[in-house]
Amino acid sequence: MSNPPICKSVGPYQIDMTQSLGKGTFGVVYLGKEIKSQEIVAVKVINLKGNEKQLDSIAKLCQNEYQIMQRLQHSNLVKLYQFQRTQNNMYFMMEYCEGGTLDSYIARKCPHKNQLKFLAESEARIILSQIVNGYKAMYDQNIVHRDLKPSNILMNKGVAKISDFGFSKILFDFENQVLQTFAGTPLYMSPQILNPQFQRQYSTKTDIWSLGIIFYEVLYGQTPWRATSFQELMVKIQQVPIKFPSIPKVSDQMKQIISKMLKVEEKDRMSWDELFQLQIQQDQESLVNINKSVIMINQEKDILKKKNLEKNLNRGIAQNIQHGIQQQEKVEKIQAKINQNSQATTDSSQTSVSPPRKEKIFSQKEKSVSPIKTLANFNQTQNALGKEQQEQIKNNSLIKKISDWIIHKKNKSEFLNRLSQQLFEQWSAQKFQLHSSIYLGICFLLTKYQVIILYKILTRLSKKTLNNTTNRFSENEWYIFCQSKNYSDSLKIIKKDYILIREFLIELVKRTQQALFETQIEEMKLINSIANIEWVEKSKFDKIFQTGLLYYRKIVLDQLNKEKNDRSYLEFAVRLNDCCRIHDILKFQEIDFFKYEDDITNSSNQQLLEQLQK
């Protein structure tokens, strides 16, 4: 008896039948590649042989999925490259998402065994926003998904994408059409599908329910109702009100949104327009804040204050390289518009109303199918195919790790920037009137540390060499990274940050030198000795940095009783306290910057006070 083929060639694609990526609604997903470009793809294979009795229904379902994917083109939806049918199988050649499923992404972010698997709200909002954007594209094409769950959300280079359209359906009337098919995964099914008392009549709001369950699970690491059977789950949904744990901390706004999405009665449940309007409102608020910041920059006369505003413009924790690029591009577009004296309302008007529904029906003709060809020399091809794929996947993993390391450095710089900005705000509020020279000295230290971090990364990126200054990666691994798109994106992000911070430092150095010229404070004398833009040996800088911050922390904590009801003061003091242990707290692959910021933002004044009194 001959062994089954381990590699297949289908049209311009090769499929490695030994590399299963998982199972879809129908069939198994394998690793493959496009022969000419060598691009890795995911191939869903639906076996028709042995399913003769269900052949017509399977073929119909696959044809439906193909037609749906053919209509959908959006960055937050998994792409279909090609669909082919042979005598024994159907093949969906699709975008390969290297980050895996959303639940596996969260699990990697929370590696400890007994740790709840959840994301910080600030990071969750980024991903949830992408999911809603993807669904908006489906809505515009009158398509309901009916099987939304974390395992059907894939992550590719930090971008969330809706996948698996096996249960999806094209509707004539998205808002009002009644559906009856039992479809989906029980834990994420709306009660209208689960409960026979509803006579299994439901609307597209079934996907609103599924999204609500996903949102809850992403934020809390568990679903709102857990059960061991359909019956138990239905009873709990109907009889047990939704509860929000106190830990992790989630904003009241997000709790209210989830509560509206998880209303048992469809008439009470949030509508699609309401959900999309929330997204639009969030985008508008972001644009308005950037507009205000750019206008303030253009109006500011004091050079130091102007540079401070510029470096803080829309800065924030970056999730990954792609997110960092998006942050920069958003600011650059608005800056360009304002600098050209154009009205910044153009973008706002474009996002203030939902785009018109698209009623165009796309062509549903199936492309001509190339006959399947099983490769003659299975072993030889399998080895070549497997080796190339494994090498590419290995390189992709390496590229991601180095990208994550660079983003970690950027976020460490952002931590220092946020602290210096809060220091500036405390000074502006005249909390430390008697310590002008000290304020400038500490602000200089924080800014110079940022420049050192960014300069070291920028030098490595610009020269495409590590210069033997880190043992984390080899020169060959760094070379592989420098051939990737992530390299050019990383270079752009770090270079922009470095330029802005360095320009601020140049102005700050002048003020610091003046303020510390005749200082009698020993700690300030040390800071004054490096008050320039020249490179400082790391051990020397670390010693002065530690000495200066510990001295300033004492000044801040001495006023703790007086300022214990001042929220901004408490947040500033906690960050300053942590900055004194920066090397212990902000370790690569150990610190989640989103959770760190959320913990401070969502903690009560009393909790922050207790943290400072330890």
Automatic annotation (TrEMBL):
InterPro entries membership: Atg1-like, Prot_kinase_dom, Protein_kinase_ATP_BS, Ser/Thr_kinase_AS
Sorted UniProt keywords: ATP-binding, Kinase, Nucleotide-binding, Transferase
Classification via Pfam families: Pkinase
Comp. bias intervals (Polar residues): 338-354
One GO biological process term: autophagosome assembly
Annotated spans, Disordered: 338-360
Positions bound to ATP: 44
Quaternary organization: Monomer.
Protein name listed in UniProt: Protein kinase domain-containing protein
Organism in which the protein naturally occurs: Paramecium sonneborni
